[in-house]
């Protein structure tokens, strides 16, 4: 397309993602836009070529709760309008619960559990998934109660085992024996389908 057509297309995309006065905003610098507007501009850039899949890596980081909700609602409406899929990468379990259909829980670069959003939140089977969910503050909890944490540390990239990577942090009584075994050094646990569409790492010490 010509430069004039590209300019008009840019204005149209800014309008599509809810930027007010896009004819003016299109000529502004990033520092002249709010955080929410900058996020919308990035979304417009990603959608300009009408992709079939959009990978959104922490799209709501550093945004306040109100703007975060607006961005998520925008992404959902654009997804429905444009018929695309969105892969959302985030550590925010609330965003996952509100936005996603299917969830993949990863630990140390490997899939620990996979299923529908209902599977993951209502019937978590991997101990890492349970640890994440248990760490969420509860409205019905005791005031000033200490939040639950997962003991231990994520392994370094130079120390990743072949076996179940969550084993050193697992509360399972057999974890120490498993880590001392040859299996831990040589066998990567498979993902097994425990019920239709719900998969979990097949290792006794990291799953319930």
Describe the structure.
This protein has 208 residues and is α+β, with helices and mostly antiparallel strands. It is built from nine helices and six strands. The strands form two sheets. The protein has a four-stranded antiparallel β-sheet with strand order 3-4-6-5. It is elongated, with a radius of gyration of 22 Å. The N and C termini lie far apart (57 Å). The mean pLDDT is 92.
Describe the structure concisely for a colleague:
This protein is of the alpha+beta class and 208 residues long. The protein has nine helices and six strands, in the order αααβαβαββααααββ.
Helix content: 25-40%
Largest sheet: 4 strands, antiparallel
What is the overall silhouette?
Answer: elongated
Strand order of the largest sheet: 3-4-6-5
Unreliable stretches, pLDDT < 50, 5 or more residues? Answer: none
What is the chain-wise order of helices and strands? HHHEHEHEEHHHHEE
Q: Which value, in Å, is the CA radius of gyration?
A: 22 Å
Measured distance between first and last alpha carbons? 57 Å
Quickly give the structural class. alpha+beta
E-strand count: 6
Secondary structure elements and their pairing?
Elements lengths: L2 H14 L5 H4 L9 H13 L5 E5 L7 H18 L2 E5 L3 H7 L2 E6 L2 E7 H6 L4 H8 L40 H5 L2 H5 L4 E5 L2 E4 L7
Helix pairs in contact: 1-3, 3-4
Task: Provide keyphrases for this structure.
elongated; single chain; two-stranded parallel sheet
